[in-house]
Design goal:
Elements: E1 2-4, E2 10-12, E3 14-16, H1 17-25, E4 37-39, E5 41-44, H2 57-65, E6 70-77, E7 83-85, H3 106-109, H4 116-121, H5 138-145, E8 151-155, H6 164-174, E9 187-191, H7 194-203, E10 209-213, H8 223-230, E11 235-238, H9 245-253, E12 257-258, H10 266-275, E13 279-282, H11 285-298
Parallel strand pairs: 5-6, 5-13, 6-8, 8-9, 9-10, 10-11, 11-12
Antiparallel strand pairs: 1-2, 3-4, 6-7
Length: about 300
């Protein structure tokens, strides 16, 4: 994991296997075997989306104050070729508009209210200043939070957005966010589309990539699949309720990062940490921060 110091600088913090085992042994009578430290990354899912409107500057800002290590940005593309932050292909759920993102120009999209829906859905968390929040572009997010921040970006529906990968690499290279490995890079890119990831790899061979999966039931993965993924990616992401400890260990033993999504309760956070994950997505980065502190204190 990483956390920010009093000046807001990211500083590395490790959760070692002995700490994992000590916490696990609180519930199971197990022998604690110390091993090497493993980093755990706290990824604020769509910003702190359990506390503020997802994929808005306000939501991302709140994720940072809760010590999320990354700003997670789902990308769609406007009619005029601008990358914007939105999870859904349609604007209906998170704005007062209706229709496909690809059918809006940026000017048209900016007229939509991207915050009021949150107040309506979560009245106990409603804030007056959420009304009228706008859909941010990728460049606006980077300009707001800077090149020292870290971004975990997903190409959503890349098949319907010709040129998405090229535009994404252009923006990331413009702001010099790409590093040669996940520790140095200020960006990771994830996708369910292996074709999109391969295209990104061909455009920039050092950008760190993560292959996403969704499983119904408990998923499995073969060594052959892991070898193929390792050719272009540095990690795997999957729904936490579709994997088990065997899956996690298999991925990590293959030298890949394992980042399950979306882990929103402390019990589930402890469970996947005990399995050996190297990070996770959560709507509540403050809860994960508290759980990680438990493991730090046990070390």
């Amino acid at each position: 994991m990483q956390k920010k110091d009093s000046e807001g600088t990211l500083v590395a913090v490790m959760i070692d296997e002995e700490s994992r085992a000590k916490q696990k042994a609180l519930h199971e009578d197990e022998k604690v075997i110390p091993t090497e430290p493993v980093p755990i990354w706290n990824v604020a899912h769509r910003g702190a989306s359990g506390h503020a409107p997802e994929h808005t500057i306000e939501g991302y800002r709140m994720g940072g104050t809760m010590l999320g290590d990354f700003i997670e940005v789902d990308l769609q593309m406007t009619k005029d070729g601008v990358l914007v932050a939105m999870h859904d292909e349609r604007v209906d759920r998170t704005t007062n508009g209706t229709g496909l993102v690809k059918d809006f120009t940026l000017e048209e999209l900016k007229k939509l209210d991207a915050g009021s829906w949150f107040n309506d859905m979560y009245p106990h968390k409603a804030q007056p200043h959420y009304v009228g929040l706008t859909v941010p572009t990728l460049e606006e997010i980077i300009q707001e939070f800077g090149t020292d921040e870290r971004y975990y970006i997903e190409t959503k529906e890349p098949g319907i957005y010709p040129g998405m990968e090229e535009e994404l690499i252009r923006v990331l290279e413009k702001y010099k966010l790409i590093g040669k490995d996940p520790k140095e890079s200020h960006v990771l890119i994830q996708s369910f589309s292996p074709e999109s990831l391969q295209k990104l790899h061909d455009l920039n061979s050092i950008v760190p990539l993560v292959r996403l999966f969704t499983y119904f039931g408990i998923g499995t993965i073969t060594d052959k699949e892991l070898d193929e993924i390792d050719d272009y990616a540095v990690g795997i992401g999957a729904n936490h309720n579709g994997i088990d400890e065997k899956y996690v260990r298999q991925v990590v033993d293959a030298g890949l990062m394992m980042h399950p999504y979306t882990v929103n309760t402390k019990d589930d956070m402890r469970k996947v940490i005990d399995w050996g994950v190297t990070g996770m997505f959560t709507n509540f980065p403050d809860l994960l921060r508290d759980v990680l502190k438990e493991y730090e204190e046990a070390s």
